Amino acid sequence: MSVFDGPLLGTAYYPEYMPEGHRDVERDLDLMVAAGIRVIRVGESVWSTWEPREGLFDLEWLTPVLDAAHARGIAVILGTPTYAIPPWLQLKHPELAVELADGRHARWGARQEVDFTNPVFLSSAERVIRAVLERHGRHPAVVAVQLDNEPGLHLIHNPATVDRFRVSLKEQYGTTDALNEAWGLTYWSHRIGSWDELWAPGGNSTPAYDLAWRRFQARCTTEFIAWQADIARAYIDEGTQLTTCIAYNRAAVDDVALGGVLDVVSGNAYLDMQDALDRHSPSRFGQSVWFTTSPAALFQQADRMRSSQQGSFLVTETGATTIAGSHQNRPPFPGQLRQVALALVARGARLVSYWHWHTLHSGAETYWGGILGHDLQPGRVYDEIASIGASLTPDLNGLVPDTDIGLLFSRDSRWLMQFHPPLAVGASGDKASYDRILGRFAEAASLAGLQCGYVSTEQLPSAEELLEQYPVFVVAGAIALSDEASSTLTRYAELGGRLVLGIRSGYGDEIGRARVATAPGLFREAAGVRYREYSNVGTVSVQDGTAEAWIDHLELEGADALLGYADERFAAWPAATSHAHGLGSVVTVGTLPDPRSLAHLLGGTRLTASLVRDLPDTVTAHTATNAAGDRVLFLHNWSATSVDTVVTGYGQISLGAWDVRIVTFKETP
User: Of 665, 662, 497, which is closest to residue 581 (Cα–Cα)?
Assistant: First the structure.
């Protein structure tokens, strides 16, 4: 039985960061036990402490922490310290610095400035990994090893890496003529006659090149973590799990590929607190922030984590109070920490771990709040986290979340839209266009009370299997989509599914070329609609609502109009259509409607409808099945106002401000 079978609370724990005279491991761990914290994460950020001089190791400083944790039944995730290199290494080997797209090198003084593909770096990294794990990997407290931390920050443009990219293209395409044809390199005199003629990525303007480059960089990240995993397995016991903390917004990350080389996926779940968690607050899906900004975005974040391995996951970092910069001080209102933790648990998290235990007294993240403040005394945040620990009963063990609707996640389309953004922000292209498009559908699904599941393009099963999982499936913003994937999705509708197509879906192929076909490409016949023109717009009126950013000039070819523009400038075109296809249907949405209008277009049946009546619009309802086979209902009130709702078999339930209630049905109603 794994320690992660049931949901647990955890925290990152760094006593080595504390000022002299203020380190008290015994007291800290006793406070953790009292709060229900059962996991700590240690050791991943301090290579220069493990190896203060090249080849000279100090490995015993962590032993008292591990021993004290084990004595209290606290499990440990031990990190390999390879993401923040020691100054002696960068001084000896300045060539290890990451070269950026413009030819400059990342300056030393932060973290992850290193070209982790460089053999010199790998040699030093292997030495410290082996030393740390040989000493501590089989300690009875260690239940998991975190390999590196938040990998894939930079796209590495160092010459040797670019050379390996050229080699990979030669292996893929065979000849330069094949590459010239595939990428359309006749344009602007870019045809190459030998592989060394392929220019460096920093000056590239060809979309297919950029997509291939992003895929290659993500493979480098996966190979680096897989390399560490191979080393680590020699130093850990059977059952000790390998993971890495994934930051899902990193430039060079393929979370599904990473999941393939790990025992369990883990990641960050950071979010804005206070009024941002009010369900009536405007969402900021797609804006250039690295944290989520609404309840719908929080659930999307959790559902994306679950999709990495299509199973449970660990949250190795989430905010205890303020996050990031010294100017971003928005500690959670009372109740919000519990809300967030149980939202993550409801969607499959087996660990919710806070970054971090102590608020730091120095360093870049001095004002990133921990469970204990700068005075190192337990207070309101500690007390609320303790209340969460009391909520994690055996009824929540082994939760498998329910889903009402599926959404395709196309990483290639996201990368392609970062290179060629279709949407605008002001006078510039919006590099978050894909997140903005897909996020609008996630927000609409949440508003409709639908529980989401994500499927990455490389995980797309057969049409029959897809229909078994999802009666409604959304394909939005998927501009890079293969013939095979398009055929599977069309077949899904033919078999009886409701396929919902958003803007740009089907417009391009799997390497980013615009299709030689009338849009929406291979979906045209099944959708019963076509378009040859499209427009960027501001905000336009639709029936009983608004739309923004984009309009496909849809022309009916058998489909029925579902939604029209009230704005007379665009009234000639429907905003959304529906067309019967086989036993199912295809809904085409040719704009970005407001979330409420889009919610009406999604359709589908809410699985929670039989359990909850009179659901206030500030309340979300999510369900899962636990290890005992019981149905578990989570009710979240994302509001500062108390509300009531009615639950089958339980009658009226009151929810206070920022409140959560969990109801377990021992017999499914």
Answer: 497
